[in-house]
Design a protein that fits this description.
The complex is a heterodimer of chains A (97) and B (278). With 97 residues, chain A is of the alpha+beta class. Chain A contains 3 helices and 4 strands, in the order βββαβαα. The longest helix of chain A has 15 residues. Chain B is mainly alpha-helical. The chains are: A alpha+beta (97), B mainly alpha (278).
Amino acid sequence: MPRIPVDKLEPGMKLKKPVMRGSMVLLGEGTELNDNWIQKIKDMEIGSVYIDGPSQMSVPKDEMMAQLDKRFRNVADKPYMSVIKKLVQEHIEDLYE
Amino acid sequence: MNSMDAKFLRSKVENISALPTIPSVLKHISSIIEKPDISLNEISDFISSDLALTTKILKMINSAVYGFPGRISSVSHATVLLGLNVIKGLLIGASVFELMQQSMQGLWEHSFDCAITSKLIAQRKNLKEPEEIYAAGLLHDIGKVILILEFPEEYQKAIHDATQQGITIFESEQNQFVENHANVGSWLAEKWRFPNNLTEAIKYHHAPHRSKYAPMETAVVHLADILVRARGFGFAGDPFVPAIEPAAFELLNLTESDIKEILREMDNSLEITEELSL
């Protein structure tokens, strides 16, 4: 579920999560964006919104995980570092879903 | 350089206005914020007299208080809301932004992400003054900027050695300068009359157990630094995640789900980083 910066939005994209301001729903989940809605979102100074569709991570997952291993290579056996590594690993997994 | 004497280094850094490599804008800001009796009004007037600076500061402020209802559009409103110390911190942050970008690719991103992450952790721990902790996160590596500006060749060697030898930049600096960026940063923080909690968070972000006045704030910046590196955001001089200090981790007492939530919030804050291209 990618989070797309507002200037990259295109008509036809569908909202995966509602656009909120505080507790008020401005655009509901599943709304198909058109130029009008995109302009509205821009006017509201919202940075980015969740869009339905496959993740658009720029680095392939395997490479991302290999880099993670590299970054942790000096500290993997230090106290609590395996927990931190596991949590970051799970977090990155989620980003690719 | 190995024989570089720590005292000599300190006197050089403290006399920042005499350092030829420091741009005049930072010297000027430094001379203003080190005044013992500087008032909020004076700072606010100084910022407002420079349109480019005002724009930068307002962007920083709005990122520091992200979540505050409505945008802050005037410097005087911000100074009242955030207080002198935060404004001083953000002023330095905004004025070293370009220096960071020029001196080390990725250091600004690292610093900015640490600021955001420090604030996220502080909020999760319900600490007072999360914006002050934001400022501490923003400036925790300011010592690196000064070392790079003053000793560019030696610092490049420190970066090179860190990657080659598989050590952290902190250790590599220590080999190269007999001092490290955390101490160098704290000398400046003292000179700029930052409060103890900010100064200690800068000084001890690699050894939070040594903090006397602000162990919690220091532990927050320590963990933020580690999480930002663990996530792979920015570059701070070496490609490795430093080890967490167990006592600091225990002091923070965060659950696994707290940390996952913080990681999620970090990713969500990314777009603000892009927006903040100052």
